[in-house]
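Why does residue order matter? Because the sequence determines the fold. Keep that principle in mind as you read this record.
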Amino acid sequence: MAEDPGPTEGLFLEPLGLYLLVERRGDRISGARLSTEPPDDILPAWWKGALLRCWLGGEPLPFELDLSGLTPFQREVLLATMAIRPGETATYGEVAERLGRPGAARAVGGALRRNPIPVIIPCHRVVGSRDLGGYNPGVDLKRRILEVERWTSPGKGHFFG
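Structure:
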């Protein structure tokens, strides 16, 4: 039987007009999703500030991520994706090459589709070689997130947070 994540906590991502809902136990994040619906509770101010600085400022996460439900390859892809700085992108093929697996671009895309912690693990920063590629919440949202990051990244414009 799956453990009940309890009430959702979150914060409003003003530049996107969406809430980031976070599933956490203590300092461990097990899931996240974007929603138009507000959370049951607002994340504590320290969490909110840290998440914004990580997302838009590129600071390292001060939280543990629960990736236990993923394969070793999926975890490897998601951790490599976290190295892509806000305002930058990499192609699926580039991520595969960084992992020492040239030719595994499709497998990288498959691993990113299983990302349980979007935005915090920035799978939206991985794009196709000819277009934006896919994104579970929709390509239009992927485009918006990337535009916000390009505008708000350090040295690129206004930084929220």
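The chain has a mean pLDDT of 89.
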